[in-house]
């Protein structure tokens, strides 16, 4: 570990005749929610500190142990992980408690919340080099830690498995145009309604494994996470014995087309789309990028593979704007449009504002594939070399790579796609030279700013 300044363990609440900020009260009961002292951090070996044993990479959930992050009651002394459940939603959870809408000591009732499909255990679940960014047993805590739950332990799932019907306009168009057939089982009807199994996962990081993936030592990773989250997690520094961190970021969703048991079957074909969030295109269908079209294409090909007796999977990661965020993305849009939106300057505009062209860093992405039991991918619906390299380097074979069809590329997204192809993205089409790249220009705003005045 790197050297750090001493951190105060406790801080007394300020005496006041009004409810103190350190001891907020419920509007309904006026009962303090917290004790009069704030525990800023803890230290290994400190009196009363006894983390619940947890051994990442153990052969099963029981011997591995549960992930415990609750600070309520005496659990603050038994925690074996840093952070809070819910990813970015942990902040909303805190707001609900502060507002008095949620009891700070609430315990969920998990009856009937079990998975709709019991994924068979995979060797990777007990391999601390294969899965480092999610809890491989996080979907089954109701069964694996029943005794602890009944004893009052605050242990929560970090994964959920359900099933639903989804509807996409592009799929209805594919049926109308004869590109897909209604089978009544996977593709239910001509409106584009599709049956799907869904898996949601929140991030759970095994810090030594995450550090190794990024080629840094654990101390550097912990110090950097502490410093660049505004010092939000002091136990990253003071508790080197705690190896698990639940970061406040978005997770992922797996969409499975066809029977889920086919995913890990190497005897059938698998079509896979790894998709990183792009709200402007995925939801609102902006034509400045290929995100929504590629997502729709991936879903179409996943359905088609499932209908042919194979399996189709689309995995949606919450990494908005190349993990730069939507504010940065829109600032880049402005710089592109006002500075002359040409493909040769596409990445430069992002680097000028964000410092890098992409912060998705796909090193952790293959974990979900190993959890699903995927050993090979017959058709990889992606042009990204970062995704390809991460998957192949993790030991999963990719047989064929499928670029987005030319006819599905929006007119104003040529700047993006041609810049990516020139930078090395996979394509079966024409390679764009540097000279040609400067001639690829995006559509402007057509004096919209002038109209606003």
From TrEMBL:
Molecular function, one GO term: GTP binding
InterPro entries in the record: GTP_CH_N, GTP_cyclohydro_II, RibA, RibA-like_sf
Pfam families hit by this protein: GTP_CH_N, GTP_cyclohydro2
Domain GTP cyclohydrolase II: 269-403
Ranges of biased composition (kind: Low complexity): 8-32
Protein family: Belongs to the GTP cyclohydrolase II family.
Protein's UniProt name: GTP cyclohydrolase II domain-containing protein
